[in-house]
Design brief:
Elements (H helix, E strand, L loop, with lengths): L23 H41 L9 H12 L3 H9 L6 H19 L1 E4 L4 H9 L12 E4 L11 H62 L1
Antiparallel strand pairs: 1-2
Helix pairs in contact: 3-4
Protein name: Translation machinery-associated protein 16
Keywords: Coiled coil
Family: Belongs to the TMA16 family.
Length: 230
């Protein structure tokens, strides 16, 4: 059965003309309007779920930085990130000591902390607190999503991560050594394969020669027997 429902206003003909409130066209227009409102609500919720965590993080760092400071140092930024990652530790501790130790809230907070730690290892996104101009913009910001793009975002990696302490030359040198080891192992494997193949081939030749000698000896023996019989 064909689907004759109209999903948009463009599909309704003569929608600007006078329509009877009880007509089928009026019902179609009402259904389309409700559908559009429902889709807008779903879209708004999805956008809010995606953007709201970013807004909350920016606001947290905005109020965490001392208002008396024009900007933060690198060491202070590291401290603030550690404070942010541990922001729910008190609540987790309270949940662990209560009868709600196995609650979904506790698991959510612990997984959130683990996620933040992993992000910190690769690069934690925060507002640029070391830029005085960006600090002024951040302090004037009221959490509006539309003006959030004016705030400069940077990525800070965990200084305790051993990979971050290596210089570029060290990383390139390790990569070169890994490539050399791989080539050497590949060459050794190829040589071993060829050597094994050669040994097997030699063994096959020996076995084949032995079979030939055995056949020749058997033929000679048969000839000798025939001559003796004669």
């Amino acid at each position: 059965m064909p689907n004759n429902k109209r999903h948009t206003f463009k599909q309704i003909k003569n929608k600007n003309s006078v329509i009877h409130p009880s007509s089928r066209k009026a019902a179609q227009l009402q259904r389309i309007s409700l559908r559009r409102d429902r889709l807008e609500l779903v879209k708004s919720r999805r956008t809010s779920e995606r953007v709201q965590p970013i807004v909350d993080r920016l606001l947290w760092f905005r109020y965490a930085l001392d208002d008396a400071l024009p900007c933060a140092t690198k060491a202070e930024v590291y401290d603030l990130i550690e404070m942010y990652i541990a922001r729910n530790d008190d609540e987790i501790s309270n949940l662990n000591s209560s009868h709600k130790a196995n609650s979904s809230r506790r698991f959510y907070l612990e997984s959130l902390k683990l996620k933040d730690k992993r992000e910190y290892m690769e690069g934690f996104e925060i507002p640029d607190l070391m830029n005085p101009k960006n600090i002024k913009i951040l302090r004037k910001w009221d959490g509006d999503v539309n003006s959030m793009s004016r705030i400069k975002i940077i990525r800070i990696e965990d200084p305790n991560n051993i990979n971050n302490l290596k210089t570029t030359s060290q990383i390139l040198d390790e990569k070169r050594k890994r490539n050399e080891n791989f080539k050497q192992n590949s060459q050794n494997s190829l040589e071993n394969i060829m050597e094994n193949f050669k040994v097997e081939l030699d063994q096959m030749n020996i076995n084949e020669q032995s079979n030939i000698d055995e056949i020749v000896n058997m033929n000679l023996l048969e000839d000798i027997k025939e001559k003796l019989i004669i």
